[in-house]
């Protein structure tokens, strides 16, 4: 399984949290070179975590007031002499100005916290560059993925992971220990060659969201064009009616639920395809094609975008009666009725349709909100595997079924009304039903005992065509064992 960008630190490298060899380090003196935003936040956090902090500045008198009183602010050389671990909170461009300190820095651990402005900005990473300037020091890359804001607001309120790499295990362990005391989760990213990768991480713009966002935009564009043709272009060409006022709200509001509904089904479709592949090949050990692997990894983002579109649809729908056009249409209808002397316009079937349509819509939105909330890392981490899979898998599928009911009650019998086929184009809702109904049908088929059992066995390691040792209970309740072909 190719790890997504977000998954790399967690999957490819070991978290150092809970490492028994890591001992508490509070009380030790930590040096910080630089007195900027990062240095200040770092000093505050270190002091709060019980460390003694000595800050090295080119102008200590002017900068002292910016730091907590517990931190000592002094000249760079003075600060460096007082500690063995020094955070270099200075930009790469200014590293060379620290060369005068080379002698006092010799034998010490330098923590490179720097970031770049562009991905792969320099040939060598900043940490490797720092190591080349100070060969007598041990350089550790770390803390660059944490912002000054996160440092100040506390690890509970932001990203908790601190990615660390170095060629020196002991130095890496020392920095990991400091990170852990500060409330962060140190993640061992290996040797110094990983520094470049760590420096690129804060520069990536929503790496896991690109595909889902393009997917949502693509679907939006397709459905928007389709609805525009049906709701605006058709009446303009066929009846010379100007319905262009519908574009900002009505057309958008008929497009959003289509996107939300199809996106929700796309969360569950890759699971269906994966199950089909496992059933077909009779094993779970065969690698899925890359596109399916990628798709499976992006389900969370696809689901969140589905929720976003559904929430917008709800807000747009609530605003429909506020429109001037709606008021004019209501008055027009009332006048027409008065002219035609119609006293009762109540259509029982329409009333029921609307009640059910709105009610199931609200339930679907409620379930989608639950799915979205539980996909947030802080909430997801508080659930055990069974709770998480029940909400995301079972409740998610129920949300898809209820959304289907919402769509069907919206469409009602329109699919059978030939007036609804504008330019021979069927009503939009009939198109949206295609993928979700396929997913629901597949899920129903997979729940048939014979298929469910086979799938369950495959997922527990059974493979087609392999001889395995089996254990069967005998009529007396005793177990007998033997060799058999597992695909029989
Ligand atoms: P900053 O506010 O501009 O501070 C940089 C500090 O570097 C200055 O306050 C200065 O302190 C010191 N410095 C030493 N030699 C210097 C020189 N020759 N010219 C100019 N300044 C010199 O920057 P920052 O935001 O704190 O960032 C510092 C480092 O942390 C950078 O490498 C950055 O990539 C990294 N970082 C920052 C954040 C963040 O959220 N800000 C997050 C992650 C990583 P003195 O005048 O006291 O010597």
From TrEMBL:
Mind telling me which residue stretches traverse the membrane in this protein?
211-229, 259-281, 302-323, 356-376, 388-409, 429-451
Q: What is its main location?
A: membrane
Localization per record: Endosome membrane
Its keywords, alphabetically, are: Copper, Endosome, FAD, Flavoprotein, Ion transport, Iron, Iron transport, Membrane, Metal-binding, Oxidoreductase, Transmembrane, Transmembrane helix, Transport
Q: Which reaction does it catalyse?
A: 2 Cu(+) + NADP(+) + H(+) = 2 Cu(2+) + NADPH; 2 Fe(2+) + NADP(+) + H(+) = 2 Fe(3+) + NADPH
Q: Identify the coding gene.
A: Steap3
* Residue stretches making up the Pyrroline-5-carboxylate reductase catalytic N-terminal domain: 29-116
Q: How does it sit in the membrane?
A: Multi-pass membrane protein
Q: Which organism's genome codes for this protein?
A: Himantopus himantopus
Q: Which cofactor does it need?
A: heme b; FAD
Q: Which GO terms describe its biological process?
A: copper ion import; iron ion transport
Q: Name one Pfam family in it.
A: F420_oxidored
Give one GO term, molecular function aspect. Answer: ferric-chelate reductase (NADPH) activity
Indicate the family of this protein.
Belongs to the STEAP family.
Report the protein name in the record: STEA3 Metalloreductase
